[in-house]
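Researcher: Quick sanity check before group meeting.
Model: Go ahead. Protein one:
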Amino acid sequence: MSEPEDLRKRLADLERQVSALKRGSFRGVRRRSALVFAGLPLYDIAIGPDPERGELRGHAKGVLAFGDLATGIVALGGLARGVVAFGGLAAGILSIGGLSIGLLLAVGGAAIGSIALGGGAAGGVAIGGAAAGRYACGGTAFGAAVVSPVRHDEEAAEFFRRYGLETVCRGR
């Protein structure tokens, strides 16, 4: 087969593949509620690419937001931002995620917040494998009042006892 003929066949094959993509074989999901609350749709779902809009990722914005990127009162997504956020990277007042940043509570592999619970935790109250905070409890803990295998401050032990967390921090 000659080189120009080979190139024509490869080009025709690529055109078929692009045509299949445009028909929606890889198209994402887009759903939005007609009901609106405080200027936001009640729910918005945006997952995956949308070639017609030129979007590689879906960005959902709503009271309940579900998407690759999600912004809402309750947000669930790869990157989630909201009052309550769940995601790979979650930021909110209450957040749960792989990397979680929460104004009040953060729970995750790595957690940063007023109260932080995670493998690595940093905050006012931090509980985790590695914890840093005013009150810290963990395998490795740093702070003003600490419960860890190498340090046991009575102030920290009493604080965790007062809030029913003595079983989490006991024996450290």
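Researcher: Fine. The other one?
Model: Protein two, sequence then structure:
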Amino acid sequence: MHRSSGSRGPRTAVPIDLDYLRENAVNTCLALEARDGLGWQHAIWADPGSAVLVQLLFCAFGSPPARWFLQVDPTGPEVHPRYRWSGRAVYWGSRLAGVQLPRPQHVPLDGPLPIVRWIERTLRAGRTPHLITFTSPAVLLCQAALDSGVDLSGAQLSVGGVPFTPAL
């Protein structure tokens, strides 16, 4: 079960079943293939929970994610215990299945520089970094790169959640 963010109304429960996962997996694979992205270095930057776990599974096409960034500290007292065990379960389940998912790394919204540096290193190595995140974190990441003088040209971002709109 996933929940909408409730941006313009109350949060809404959204069921996630195997049919949904299969259809989204196929669509994600096709979208990555259309962008010649199956061999990219994939990473995710999101809150712990069902949405990030689904994204981890989706971006495993071509190659497993290289990095898994969490916007909140998964050991923090405000994080529901289900997020702690679900992340661990996916990590260890991937190991049992022979897929090497990375351990999650806490990178807060107000400190995205570790992700900027990962992108920079990946570009320097001649690879294409691909970050899956939401709109606001993507903007924060780009601002941090601009502030630190890092050129993100060649990096790929897949963003969702809300549409991009002009700044007010």
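Researcher: One line on it for the slide.
Model: Residues 88 and 168 are 40 Å apart (CA to CA).
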